Automatic annotation (TrEMBL):
Coiled-coil annotated spans: none
A Pfam match: PAP2
Keywords: Membrane, Transmembrane, Transmembrane helix
Domain Phosphatidic acid phosphatase type 2/haloperoxidase intervals: 68-147
Protein's name in the database: Phosphatase PAP2 family protein
Xref: Gene3D superfamilies: Phosphatidic acid phosphatase type 2/haloperoxidase
Amino acid sequence: MMMLWMALSALGSMGVTGPLGVAVAVWLLAGRTWRLSLSWCLLFGIGLLLVVATKVAWYGWGIGIPEWKFAGLSGHAMRACAVYPVVLYLMFLKARPLVRHAALAGGVLLSVLISLSRVPVLAHSMSEVVLGGGVGLAVAAAFIAMARSERPAAVGRILVALCVPLVLVMPFTKPVPGERWVRQVAVYLSGNEPVQRAWKLGPDRKPYRKAQGPV
């Protein structure tokens, strides 16, 4: 079961969701819906900024919610919940309503599973996952609401052919050291040593500092 959680967690890494997010923007530009592409970039960028801001606040100044075991939004959860529903929605944009709704539901389900995987792999607490995923789903919902009025072109086979290898190959590449970069920014801005969690994660009580990975 742990191997499944680890595989799901890898699908939420920056190395996968980052390029997928860029692919969405590029495809929307190719379909000449530049305003929708800009809206996606802004929404996704706001989500990423919130993740970084909450992590910097914790690492730099210890600003969080210890009672909830909250030390920053889960980047994996935010990105997965923002990207996968949107990608599946665009892929099946011209399909029958039932198929399109099923694809969107599948994207949401996949993103929720990816988010939840961060708890058993000892990377985040449940509060960090839930709040991070909530931000991501809000990003996806806002974009899809805009897309319904803009009516972008359906995703072509070329984009699908590019995305599939990306999802299959990128989880096995060297991870982007996003968490380390965030800590370095927090230390630079605050002038303090990075704040560590005072609580433990996971049923086996392993310390968080031994389980840190990329955001």
